[in-house]
Amino acid sequence: MATAATYSTSRSEAAYEAAQEVISGGVNSGARGPQAGWIPGPPVVARGEGALVWDVDGNRYVDYLLALGPMIHGHRHPQMTAAVRDAIESIGTMFALPYELEAQAARAIVEAVPSVELVRFGNSGTEVVLHACRIARAATGKDVIVRFEGQYHGWADQLEWSHHPPLAAAGLARSPRAVPGSPGIPEAFGKTLAVLPWNDVDAVERLVKRRGHEIAAILTEPIMGNTGVIPPARGYLEALREITRANDIVLIFDEVISGFRVAYGGAQAYYGVTPDLTTMAKALGGGFPVAAVGGRRDLMEVVADGEVLHAGTYNANTVAVAAAAASLEVLRQPGIYERLFATAERLTAGIGDVFERAGVPVEVQGVGPMFQFWFSKTPIADYRAAAPHLNSPKYAALARELHRRGVLVHPSNIELWFVSTVHNDALVDETLAAFEDAVRAAGAALRD
Ligand SMILES: Cc1ncc(COP(=O)(O)O)c(C=O)c1O
Question: For domain 78-331, which CATH number applies: 1.20.1420.30, 3.20.20.10, 3.65.10.10, 3.40.640.10?
C-alpha cells in the first residue's frame, strides 16, 4: 500500500503534460481531466491487474473507479482476455455479416434480463440509448422523451440536457426547464424533451395528464447513478410502470450502469419491475466496448425489416460479442452476486463506521456494488437535494488523501464507487485502514 509519505506523482504530471501537446486537454473524455476534479492532473496509468491499478510513478491503488463501471471482473480477467483473444484468432474481428457467436451472446442477454425478448448490439451506452428512443418514437408515432434531472444518458445532443443544470437556470423544482449540458447543443433538441424531478410520482402524473398524447417514452435510470447514487423511492418504479402502460408510453430503463451489476437481470430483476426497453453497456462487456438495446418483441421488431433504421459498422464486432458472452458466463457462476454484495456491504458498513468514529455526518447511499456517500445529515432523493453537495470540496479533499494512501476513486462525488467480483475482504480491510487515516488527515476540511 502506498503511504502518504512516499506518494509522488511527478511522472504522471510529466506524462500528462506531454499528452497535452497532442491530445486536446490531454484526455479523451471530459470525466478524466482537471475540470472533472483531477487536479493538477489525473494519475497516468501503467497497468491494471485484478482489483489493482499502478500508475507510472509506481503507486499501487485498490481500484474503486473501475473505469466508471465496466470492470466488474477487475482488470485483465483471464477468462475475458482468453475469450477475446480466441475470437480474434479463430474468427476475425468484423465482417458486416452475421456469425454464430452473435446469437449465442444475444441469447444469454435474453435469458438474463426479464424484459428482453430481442436485442440489437451497439458499441456505447450513448448509441444504444439513442436507438431505444428511436424505436420508442417509431413505435408510438410520438416525439417527446421524458427524462429526469440529475440523470445521464450519454453525451448526444438529443439527450444531454438537465444532467447537472445550474439551479439558477433550471426553473421550478416540480416543473424544471430543460437545460442543455454543453455549448454546441442546438436549442431545438430541448423541445423534444420534457424534464422532470426524479422520485416524484405526482410530477409524472401531472405531465402525462397534460401531454401524454405527445410522449413517446419515459427514459430513466432505475437506480440514479450519475448524481452519486440515488436509489428509487419505494413504489416509484412500479408507478412509472403503471402510468406508462396506461398511456401508450414506452418505459425505457437505462441500465448502462445497473445492468448485470446489481443482479444478473439488472435493476429490473432486483426491483421486480419490467420496462418495455432496456439499454445495457458497462458490466455487459466487462471492460470491452459493447452495448445493447433490448426489449419487448413487438417494439424491437420495428427495426427487423430495416424500415426503422438501426445501423453501425462496428455493431456486434467479434471483440464486443466475445467479451459480452464471456462477461455473462463469468457472472453466471453460482454465488457471484452474493459475494459481490457481501464485499460491498463490508466496505460501506466500514466507511459508515469510520465517519461515525470521526463524528462526521454522512449518508451512504447505494445498491450493493454501486454506492456513494454524501456529506449530508439527511438522505438525498433527487437532483435538487443533491445539488448543494455536488462537486463537494470536502469530498475532493478526502479523495486526494485516499489517492495518497492507495485508494483510487474519482475526485468528484457526482461519480460513484464500484466494487468488482475480484475485490476481497483483505483489500476491503486495507481500504478501510487507508480510509480511516485519510479522514484523519483531511481533518478540518470535512467539518462545517
Ligand atoms: C446511465 C448511463 N447511460 C448512458 C451512458 C453513456 O454510455 P457511454 O459512455 O458508453 O456512451 C452512461 C455513461 O456513463 C450512463 O451512466
Answer: 3.40.640.10
